[in-house]
Amino acid sequence: MIRIGQVNQLVVTKEADFGVFLDAEDYGSVLLPAKYIHQPVAVGETMAVFLYFDSDNQLAATTDSPAAQVGEWGMMKVVGINNTGAFVDWGIREKDLLIPFSEQRGRLSEGQSILVYVYTDKASGRIVGTTKFNKWLDKTPASYTRNQKVELLIAERSQFGFKTIVNGTHWGMLFQSDIFGRLFVGKRVKGYIKQIREDGKVDVALQRVGMAKLDDLSEKILDLLNKKDGFLPLCDKSSPEEIFAVFRTSKGTFKKSIGNLYKKGYITIESAGIRLASVKND
Q: Which helix (H) or strand (E) holds 241?
């Protein structure tokens, strides 16, 4: 089945000096211009191409990779504005993506980089973009469980932290107190469900919550200690940046974990770092 606005695997049916023709099934043949062909191909071979409608509403193929396909979000730069809406560069050389004025949550300006959702307009059949995400997210109550691992897309900055899109389906809130490392709109990160509030809203975190979080980090600390001959030059005096660079976690969580490991007798804490309790100084 041919999917317009997405990458398709199409068979080469004819070669020409100016490109190759591909079998687009019910859409007939589509030309892939020679400038998009980066290695020799022959009739009968299959090629991965992105399909879209050009400015003349004709089916076109390219090997360019879009920032987002239909049904996806991607960061794009506004390259022009006219009386129809704003146009963004979505990675397709021959055609910019239109964001109609009716699909803009606040007026856009040229040069601005924004997060865009790509979809097919049912009325016109055109591929367009939107910055109004609510209607594309699931409104049914989320059924996530605490500490469930999820994919997070940083979607919007808030006075409380960041609004995120959870697994491409629900809004989630990442509060400032749970943020560490560098985050920005458009970044995709691994995360965990913190809680489902009574009003159905989802709170997320960048690391496991509670003891499950500490247990996970403790395993990482012990594993790295074993790989580093029993000693790591990190302790409760180390900077948040040093700790994050090694364990991708906050200093507070790291301190709790090494404190837990110390109480259980797994490690000793020294002024210069931490050491496996079974590893003695020479």
A: helix 240-247
Where exactly does CATH 2.40.50.140 map onto the chain? 7-62, 73-134, 149-205
Q: CA–CA distance from 126 to each of 55, 78, 136, 140, 236 (Å)?
A: 10, 19, 17, 28, 56
Burial class of residue 5, CB neighbours in 10 A (0-12, 13-18, 19+): buried
Which residues does residue 202 pair with via DSSP β-bridges, in sequence order? 172, 196
CATH architecture assigned to 7-62: Beta Barrel (2.40)
d(CA 24, CA 2) in angstroms, rounded, equals 7
CATH H superfamily, domain 149-205 = Nucleic acid-binding proteins (2.40.50.140)
Whole-structure pTM value: 0.78
Residue 130 CA to residue 97 CA, distance in Å, equals 10
Q: Where in the chain is the domain with CATH 1.10.10.10?
A: 211-276
End-to-end CA distance of the chain: 68
- Two tokens at 187? 């970044």
User: How do residues 198-250 score in pLDDT, each as one tens digit?
Assistant: 888 999 998 888 767 777 889 899 989 989 989 999 988 899 999 999 998 98
Q: What CATH architecture applies to the domain 73-134?
A: Beta Barrel (2.40)
